[in-house]
């Protein structure tokens, strides 16, 4: 027992001495594994957030459009849309409304949101609303066009995702189910032919 502990201490000393290297400084040979799993999770989370935002924007813009068509101002329409929706888009515009309540100008807050937001669709909507406020263009027409373009973008994105999933579903069909089916259909014929020659 005593020799085992002495051997362990000696081995530790040799390993420590070798880790000092030629320079006499402690050198640790630690190989860091690439964080592939974490990177993949982050990438998937970003894709999910982008798709989720893409799905929220047409609904939020439609709420704004309905309120504007009902005769509400843009600020009141934003308040109505924020109060009746949840999610990332609603939280972005909720912050705009909070800043307006604290005394900021709606147009400036929309411009800031158009610059600072991480979502392309939110930036586009905020920028269009800020420009419409600045130039006095018709909000109902602008929002109707935006809802239509955002819905078509969502439709295109969902079709692309469905096409990728369909391709993934074809792989087991082609490489597993089809060969097994061919084997089951050909085997009785081969067995019958083999028995006829005997």
From TrEMBL:
Keyword entries, A-Z: Cell membrane, Membrane, Transmembrane, Transmembrane helix
Transmembrane segments: 169-193
Family annotation (InterPro entries): T2SS_GspF_dom
Location of the Type II secretion system protein GspF domain: 60-184
Main localization of the protein described in the UniProt heading: membrane
Membrane topology qualifier: Multi-pass membrane protein
Protein name: Unannotated protein
Species for this entry: freshwater metagenome
